[in-house]
Amino acid sequence: MDLTVREREKSGLRTVERALSVLESFTAEETECSLADLARKLRLSKATVSRLLSTLLKHGYIDRTPDGSKYCLGVKLFYLGSIVAKTMKLREVALPIMYELRDATEETVHLNIVDGNQRLCIECVEGRHELKVTTHVGQRSPLHAGASAKVLLAYQDTETIEKILSRSRLSRITSTTITEPEKLRKELEEIRNRGYAVSRGERIHGVVALSAPVRDRTGSVVASLSVLVPETRAEASRIEDVLLPLLLAKAAELSFRLGYSRELGTHPLGNKRCSSGSSASGDLGGA
């Protein structure tokens, strides 16, 4: 790396740090600041602070007061804060239910949300067996691969689904990852019809994943609750008679605790079997 590139990187980092300092200058006691106030607090020139404010204004992180004389925090921060609050509440409510599901199944349980165009794991409780599937908070994966991701994708709006499916190439993570758009469309429709997904080895070889949608008070799917099982313990009868009923019951309980009412739509427990009438064991695709 030449000196010029290093200098540009240092300059860019310094600009980011200064922009964050501008945002952190606002407090509950001082919600509005003038250009002079900010320049004094940050010990920077008015010209430098003005440039920072212009960029923050452009992206909605800063706003002007009605009379235009001062600055205040923008609605973009409220939007981002609401995402954090929503995620924190979701994890807080979900964790006891996840432990109950883990204890009942003795398998690894995790909670996932959509972040951009990816599945993001936001909470995980490891299974009790010595041979268990391990995952971690912060793990990401494409929305087209594995049960936990496909449940999230299935309940996105049509535009989002088509945007992901219309990519020039859906990545093949394992030999069983579905990469054909039309085949994936059909499976997403089946997931919506039956209210859950079961997959085998789509993302991790030797792992079967079961996943169910979690809804909030509006009926929107905000997360997927999943159980990960080594293939050696994933007999069809165990999946259909034990694991799926437990998973669906806990996903329904979590949805209820988030304010979801059955009257808003079909409850997943009411449609344990596929819409075609075949049992869950007939659709063991990939994890």
Helix coverage percent of residues? Answer: 40-55%
Average pLDDT over all residues: 85
- Ranges where pLDDT stays below 50 over 5 or more residues in a row are 263-286
Number of helices: 8
Strand content: 15-25%
Q: Domains counted in the coordinates: how many? A: 2
Query: What pattern of helices and strands is seen along the backbone?
Result: HHHEEHEEEHHHEEEH
CATH superfamily of the largest domain: GAF domain
Q: CATH top level of the largest domain?
A: Alpha Beta
CATH architecture designation of the largest domain: 2-Layer Sandwich
Major sheet description = 6 strands, antiparallel
**CATH topology category name of the largest domain:** Beta-Lactamase
- Roughly how many Å apart are the termini? 41 Å
Given the helix and strand composition, which structural class is it? alpha+beta
Structural features, described:
With 287 residues, this protein is α+β, with helices and mostly antiparallel strands. The chain folds into two domains: 3-73, Orthogonal Bundle (Arc Repressor Mutant, subunit A); 83-283, 2-Layer Sandwich (Beta-Lactamase), CATH 3.30.450.40. Helix content is 44%, strand content 17%. It has eight helices and eight strands, in the order αααββαβββαααβββα. The strands form two sheets. It has a six-stranded antiparallel sheet with strand order 5-4-3-8-7-6, with helices on both faces. A hairpin with a 2-residue loop joins strand 3 (108-115) and strand 4 (118-125). The longest helix is centred in the N-terminal third of the chain and has 31 residues, at 75-105. It is elongated and about 70 Å long. The two termini are 41 Å apart. The model is unreliable at 263-286 (pLDDT under 50).
